[in-house]
Automatic annotation (TrEMBL):
<keyword id="KW-1003">Cell membrane</keyword>
<feature type="transmembrane region" description="Helical">
    <location>
        <begin position="319"/>
        <end position="344"/>
    </location>
</feature>
<feature type="transmembrane region" description="Helical">
    <location>
        <begin position="7"/>
        <end position="27"/>
    </location>
</feature>
<dbReference type="GO" id="GO:0005886">
    <property type="term" value="C:plasma membrane"/>
</dbReference>
<dbReference type="GO" id="GO:0006835">
    <property type="term" value="P:dicarboxylic acid transport"/>
</dbReference>
<keyword id="KW-0472">Membrane</keyword>
<feature type="transmembrane region" description="Helical">
    <location>
        <begin position="154"/>
        <end position="172"/>
    </location>
</feature>
<feature type="transmembrane region" description="Helical">
    <location>
        <begin position="356"/>
        <end position="379"/>
    </location>
</feature>
<feature type="transmembrane region" description="Helical">
    <location>
        <begin position="193"/>
        <end position="214"/>
    </location>
</feature>
<dbReference type="InterPro" id="IPR036458">
    <property type="entry name" value="Na:dicarbo_symporter_sf"/>
</dbReference>
<keyword id="KW-0769">Symport</keyword>
<keyword id="KW-0812">Transmembrane</keyword>
<keyword id="KW-0813">Transport</keyword>
<dbReference type="GO" id="GO:0015293">
    <property type="term" value="F:symporter activity"/>
</dbReference>
<feature type="transmembrane region" description="Helical">
    <location>
        <begin position="226"/>
        <end position="250"/>
    </location>
</feature>
<feature type="transmembrane region" description="Helical">
    <location>
        <begin position="83"/>
        <end position="105"/>
    </location>
</feature>
<keyword id="KW-1133">Transmembrane helix</keyword>
Amino acid sequence: MKGQNKLFIAIVIALILGVGIGGFVHLQYPESAEPFSKNIKLLGTVFIRLVQMIIAPLVFTTLVVGIAKMSDIKMIGRVGTKAMLWFISASLVSLFIGLILVNWLEPGHVTKLPIQDAASAEELLKSSKGFSMEDFVKHVIPKSIFEAFATNEVLQIVVFSIMFGIALANLGDEYSQPVVKLFDIVAHGILKMVGYIMWFAPLGVLGAIAAVVATNGFEIFKVYAIYLRDFFFALGILWLVLLLVGYLIIGNRLFELLRRIKEPLLIAFSTTSSEAVFPKLVEELERFGCNNRVVSFILPLGYSFNLDGSMMYMTFASIFIAQIYGIEMTIGQQITMLLVLMLTSKGIAGVPRASLVIIVATCSMFGIPPEGIALILPIDHFCDMGRSMTNVLGNALATSAVSKWEGQLDNHGGDL
């Protein structure tokens, strides 16, 4: 928590410095704004490349380990199936709400930032026009896993990881356990790296903001106010949908559930970490009346597959960055992006700022400048507060709903 607060303060300081430096260049030396922007933006490039460096191994190891450990679903069978149906439905609803509202509210159309590399923009236009089923299949099915790793083809890595994880899960513990343990250790090592890389974020923010303000002036700050307003409005709509579905399933006990989980919700909001409240959430759900076996199975699974707030944010932020750069995406491309996010986001649950890592990968895949992520990084902390809280609500509702469907929800609440 202390580290997170220090990083947040460092990002705020970098933001203020970036605004000051960029504004000074914009007002005093307008003729030097372009070369200055080009050079200082390298700080942002360093940060983005560091994030891109760990995407492939992170998706691979976490997804393989997650699926290999999901062999428990065979024993719990019916409960697992119901849980996965909830997770997939909730994820799709969250993604669609983000997609619909970002297209309706258009927060990124307040201002336009030029794409620096005109050649890459032309290439994007050509490739998007010529997009065919053959191209899609080539993007999904890897010819070589090493090629997919080398070129950061996340979707291909996901396909290979799913198949490899299923194979390990069906191999038997004697053979699979050492491999799963090895990948688990590697995944934890990469998660440590994510923590280190995030300390480069203030430099990335400084470079990106200074470059933007130097060339575009102070108009960019209108964007931040509108972005936060529209995101929290979209989050409010998602809460209404989740609570309505929860009420239809567990009735008036929904209000009791909300009273029970108010503390975990507040902790998640203030620490921006849904993982930080996991033990407390287990305790409160069991006191609410959920069967402890259902809780111990569904809640960890939910933390991997049911991050509703993060899912909505990923479509919202990705399309927002495209709007900022004036990149028009067809409905077909946006639906494809939604399905890509649906798959890729399942691989790195629990990663600090996982949403940003996925957004960078998705933007690269769809020809949206990935450096655009640095523009929303200064206010990501505030967005993270809302989406962490929403993730906790979504998992509490999922666990309660499946307990109710299984007839395992005590009416009176209970002890641990």
